[in-house]
Amino acid sequence: MSKMTEETLEVYTIEMNSKNEGRAGQFYMLSVPGVGEAPISVASGFGRNLIFTIRDVGSVTSKLKNLQFVGIRGPYGTGWPWKEYDEVIGVAGGIGIPPIRSLLEEMMDSGRQQDLEVMYGARTPSDLVYKKEFGDWTKSLNFQITVDTANAEWKGNVGFVPTLLRKAHLSKMAAVFVIGPPLMMMNTVKEALKLGYREDRIFISLERRMECGIGVCGHCNVGEYYVCESGPIINYSRVRDDKELFL
Amino acid sequence: METAFIAISRDFQTYGAVERDGEVIFDRVAGFDQVSEERSRYAPKEFLMKRNENVLILNVENKTAVFGIKSCDLKGFYLMDKQVFGKDPFYTEKREKTLFANFVCSEPCSGGFCSSFGGPVLDQYDLQILREGEKFHVMVSEKYDRYFGEFKKEAGTFYSDFSNRFNSKLEPLPVEGIERRIKWNSELWKEYASACISCGACNFECPTCYCFDLYDDGNERKREWDSCILSGFTSSSAGNIRKDLDERLRQRFYHKFVYFKKSKDTYLCTGCNRCVEDCPVGIDIKEVITYDYNRE
C-alpha cells in the first residue's frame, strides 16, 4: 500500500503500488492475514494504480487501513458495459460512488468524458467522499451532487439522488448505471423509467455477501444468478422480477 | 469383480463402504468382498469437498477409487459438477482423480424417492454395479474400460428393463414442473419455520449441497461447509436479505427446484431422503414437491 486518505469519519481510501487489471464495476477480494477477506469494488480505472475506498464496518475493513501489505485476489465479477453505449449516466448513492469514480477515469482515459454525466447523492455533506476531486470532475463533465439533509454551509442541491436525473442533459437513449443502497437503486430505477430511459439500458449493482468470488460458495445466490459471477453489475431487465432484488 | 478390483487397486488407493461400530462409513478396503452394500451413514461428500480444509495450499491428490457409493449419493457429485467443477480448484483436483464405483439398489429403500429423478440407474458413472444373485452386472465408462477387458460384454436391455421395473415399484413424485407450481408466499415456509431449529443438518446431509464459508484461522484460510438455513448466511454490510427463517427455508427449496433448474436445466436433488431422515423436526422435502399450492 502506498497511500491512505481519510474521506469521512468511517470511510477511507487506500492506494496500492500495483495496477488495476479489472474494469470499472468489478471487485477484488482484499484480505488481512489471520482476519479474513472482504469484497471491495475497485475505485480506479483500468491500468491505473489500484485504489479502493472502504467503509470501516467489519473485522477486515477496520484493519485494511493501516497495513503495509494487503492480500488481494481478483478482479471478479462484471463491469459497467460503458463501451457499448454512446451516452452514459452514472448515478451513485452513498458509498456506491467508488465504481462510478472508476468508470469516470476509464471514460476520461478514452477521451469520452463528454459522453458521461454523474449524479451523486449522500446523506449529509460530511458523508461525501472524493471532495478534493469534485473540482476537476465538474470541469470535465456534468457532475451533480445532492444531499438528503443539508447543514448551514451547504449551498448545493438538497434531496434524494433520483431527483438529480432530471438535470441530465444526455438523451433518453443513454445507459443509466445505478449503484447505492437498495432503496436508492429502486427509486432511481423507477425515476429513470418514468423519465423515459430504456429499461434494457439500465444497469444496477447488486451488493450481496460474497466469499469465494468464483460462483461456488453460494452466499451471493439470488434467483438463478450468483452475483459474484453474473454481477455485481447486471442489466435491470434481467433481474427486474426477482423478489429479493432490492432487499 | 474381485479381478477388476485388483487391477484398479494397482493404480488407485481403494476405499469402500464398510461397517464400523454399527455404522457404515468409508474406509480403506483391500478387496471387493469387504465392501458393504448398505448405504453409508453420511453422503461421502468429503471425498471431494472436505468438511473443513485449508485453501491456501492446493495439494496434488492421490488417485482414489471409491467402492460402494450409492447411486443417489454419486448423482449428487454429477449435479455439483455443474456449479463447482472447473471453478473450485480443490474440488476439481479431487474429482478428476477419483473413480466412483456406485451400487445400484436392487430394491427401493424406505423413504427414498430416487425414481422421481430418474431412479438408481444413472446415465453418468465410472463403474455402475448391479448385483443379480451372485452375479454382478457392471456398466463401465470408456475411461475405465481397460480394467474390464477380459469380461463378457453384455448386449441387450438388462439395465433399462431393471430400471423400468424399479421405477414402477417406486412411483415417481410429480416433480416435473415444480418450478412453476411452487409459490413464493406459500404457507409451507412459515409452517416449516415454526418447527425448524436451524441446525443445518439438511444441508450437511445433502449429497448435492456444496455451499461453504471461508474464514481465516491462524496461518490458514479455511473453507468449511456452510448452511443456507443459518441466519448469518446472507448478512453483509448492506444488511441481510434473508433475515427470517421462512425466507431461508424457501431459499433452500427454491435453489433446488427453481433456480438450479433455470440455470442448469436440472433439479438439485437426487431423492436420497437423507435430509428427511436427519431432520429433527420432520420437515419433508417430498411435501414441497407434492404440496397442492393452488389450494392456497
Describe this structure in words.
The complex is a heterodimer of chains A (247) and B (296). Chain A is α/β, with parallel strands linked by helices and 247 residues long. Chain A folds into 2 domains: 3-76, Elongation Factor Tu (Ef-tu), domain 3, CATH 2.40.30.10; 82-205, 3-Layer(aba) Sandwich (Rossmann fold), CATH 3.40.50.80. Helix content of chain A is 17%, strand content 30%. Chain A contains 5 helices and 15 strands. Chain A has helices at residues 97-109, 134-140, 182-195, 227-230, 236-239, and strands at residues 3-6, 11-19, 27-32, 36-41, 49-55, 71-76, 88-93, 116-122, 142-147, 157-158, 175-179, 202-205, 221-222, 225-226, 233-235. Chain A has a 7-stranded mixed sheet with strand order 10-9-8-7-11-12-15, sandwiched between helices. A 3-stranded antiparallel sheet of chain A has the order 1-2-5, with no helix packed on it. The longest helix of chain A has 14 residues, at 182-195. The N and C termini of chain A lie far apart (34 Å). With 296 residues, chain B is of the alpha/beta class. Chain B folds into 2 domains: 2-169, no CATH class; 178-295, no CATH class. Chain B has helices at 2-11, 71-84, 89-96, 158-169, 178-181, 187-195, 201-205, 245-264, 274-277, 285-290, and strands at 13-20, 23-28, 52-54, 64-70, 98-103, 127-132, 135-140, 212-217, 220-225, 235-236, 239-240. The longest helix of chain B is centred in the last third of the chain and has 20 residues, at 245-264. The mean pLDDT of chain B is 96. Chain A binds chain B through residues 31-37, 55, 57-58, 61, 181-182, 207-212, 214-219, 221-225, 243-244, 247, and chain B through 83-84, 87-88, 91, 184, 210-216, 218-219, 221, 223, 226, 228, 233-239, 241-242, 251, 255, 258-260, 262-263.
Quick tags:
heterodimer; A: 247 residues; alpha/beta; Elongation Factor Tu (Ef-tu), domain 3; Rossmann fold; three-stranded antiparallel β-sheet; 15 strands; 17% helix; globular; B: 296 residues; 2 domains; six-stranded mixed β-sheet; 10 helices; 31% helix; 20% strand
